[in-house]
Model the fold of this input.
Amino acid sequence: MGTVLKAYTISFKGLKLGKHSFDFEVNNDFFSEFPEGEIREGALNAKVKMNKQENLLEFDIVIKGEVKVTCDRCLEQFFLPVQYKGFLLAKITSEEMEDEADIMYLTEDDHEINLARYLYESIHLSLPIKRYHGLNGTSIDDCDQEMLKYIHFEEEQEVEVDPRWEALKKLLDNNN
Done:
């Protein structure tokens, strides 16, 4: 793990039982540690509320900020506001177990937990499938107008309907 990602570590061993709060800044240095990802730039804040129990850590995580993505319409890069709310459990067990979707397993010898991978994946999950100017408060006017000239929007055309379907539709309408 790179030294940048160590900043996303919480040492829980010495903390009292109960609630604790942490703030993490997620920036370009963070994203550079994940070369396989599509996000290269961003400025986000992750607010983590941890409830420490005897053999369980509960995390309420809220991530807000913006990341640089490519517009699906004009192919220009732009900053898209994103937000994520999630809940993560970390169970402390006597044996090593494989992590699950929202459950991490720690051994009794572990004294800290690193949230970098979870934050990274959560930010990606917060991205909409389609990304374009005009989404999440961005301006559609920022789309590259030159590029938009090359996009052909299909106008609605009268579609010829098979006459058999029309006959069936009339039957249905008559029965209602």
Notes: The longest strand covers residues 77-93.
